[in-house]
Write a structure and sequence with these properties.
- The protein is built from four helices and no strands.
- The chain is mainly α.
Length: about 90
């Protein structure tokens, strides 16, 4: 595991970090951590930052594409593989 652990096994001192955000974004953060079963906002933020540090291959554009696809799927705006091949000019091979 990375040096970003907070389980007490590390010799690193825990420090407080402050950041600014809008009230509406903070509400989204709170809804997210509570909905995903985290014990606190801090735990969720540490987890999220640790994940971003350990797995930095996901760039912003990829995340936006993934979220857009997820939203389309939830709204049942998906297409079959055949439709996608026809639309984007690809084939099976």
């Amino acid at each position: 595991m990375s040096g970003a652990t907070t389980d007490g096994d590390s010799e690193d001192d825990i420090v407080t970090v402050n950041f600014k955000t809008t009230e509406s974004f903070l509400e989204e953060i709170d809804e997210t951590w509570q909905g995903r079963g985290f014990n606190s906002r801090s735990e969720f933020i540490r987890y999220t930052l640790r994940d971003a540090v350990e797995f930095p291959t996901f760039d912003r554009d990829e995340l936006i594409a993934l979220l857009t696809a997820e939203e389309s799927s939830r709204e049942e705006e998906t297409m079959t593989a055949e439709e996608a091949r026809e639309r984007f000019g690809t084939d099976d091979e």
